[in-house]
Amino acid sequence: MTELKEAPAMDAPPPPPPADSAPQQPKRRGRPPGSTDKAPRKTAASARKASTPSLEKRLAGSLTTVGTMACLVSPADGMTIVQGVPALAASLAKLAEENASVRANLERMLTAGAWSGVIAAVVPIAVGIAANHNLLPAHMAAMLGAGPATGPESAGAPAS
Fold first, then answer.
1. Which pTM was predicted?
2. Which of 37, 57, 77, 144 gives 20 to 30 Å between its CA and that of 87?
3. Using CB atoms within 10 A of its CB, is residue 36 exposed (0-12), middle (13-18) or buried (19+)?
């Protein structure tokens, strides 16, 4: 049977370090001398590029909005536009890769097209309000899924 050594007292000094260990230097803050930063720096422009969808995707979104708005006038025409969007967006993006002026004009169009998203969000609200006040022809209100208001509680309904 192996005998266990008695544990040192709590007030005893710590044991000396092993003889083969080198004396430790105090730690310094920052990079060691001579080291370089091998990771590429992230700039505001590179962060913007990473978060911006491709030109083709942005064109598809904008053209789909145009098709959706066209559905208000003619559902058949609007759906024809929406169905043709993928091929049109792909071909315009390919053309933009080959021609810098086309790309610049498409980018300018898409920047102005940000307002089309706001308009597309406001139109259903305006249509619903217009239908509630009998400001839309019945066939257009029905096509848009909003019926003309009925009953005395509707603010703009003409009295019968």
1. 0.46
2. 144
3. exposed
